[in-house]
Amino acid sequence: MQVFHSVKEMQHCARHLKLQGKNIALVPTMGALHKGHISLIRKARIDCDVLIVSIYINPTQFAHGEDYMSYPRHLEKDMAKAAGEKVDIVFAPTDKEMYPPGFTTSVDVGELSARLCGAARPGHFQGVCTVVTKLLNIVHPDFAYFGQKDAQQALIIKKIVQDLNMEAQIIVLPIIRDKNGLALSSRNKYLNKYERKAALVLYKSLQAARRLIDTGERKSEYIKEKMQELIQKEKLAKLEYISICRYNDLNELELIEKNTLIALAVQIGRARLIDNYLVENL
Fold first, then answer.
1. 37 is catalytic
2. Which of 5, 12, 16, 37 is catalytic?
């Protein structure tokens, strides 16, 4: 497994691979690899000739007072996991490589980034859009893999690729959960045993919404109320938002329809947790 820290070295390698006719998969991560990341890596390993995993904690997507400094950093362990999954290349750039002195450019997709998590974290998706655009331009992958847990992020990245005429195909894979239903996240490491138990309320509320829809309920406000009642019973949970929206534009819906996204964010202890359920068919 090769490891690159330099943008120029990564670009040179990617160009060489393209000249050889290889197709390239990119799995962008911020490290602290868990089974959710591994699911992306394994699918990418099957799909492509060359598998590249980026490990970079992007400072521009963290607002002042957020957990940038405390975000889990386990580069050596992550590289060992990557090697175990037969990753060909790990790209682990430094901040200076990604944002050299004088860097001023940013990427913003507008309204999509102002809703849901974007409303609570101003500037977050501008940072995400900028770093993902840079990674796609550095690696020029044929396929890039993201998880459905970050549903808004995946939608926004698809919009970037479409609007900026990039050639990468964005692949979004299902949420990976632990045996109790908690969506896997690097931030789960912040949770103590009591908070981890409390965090199950996100999945329970989505299950409650799903049961209501399966029995014919279509009114978004009623479903939100029932989800909120359930979350408020959990003393350690502080609800940030519940959104029931059309997935292709994130506009709120009064009635459930096909491709409705039910998404929520909840603060539990130090961890800001998100989860969602996509109503694909009725």
1. yes
2. 37
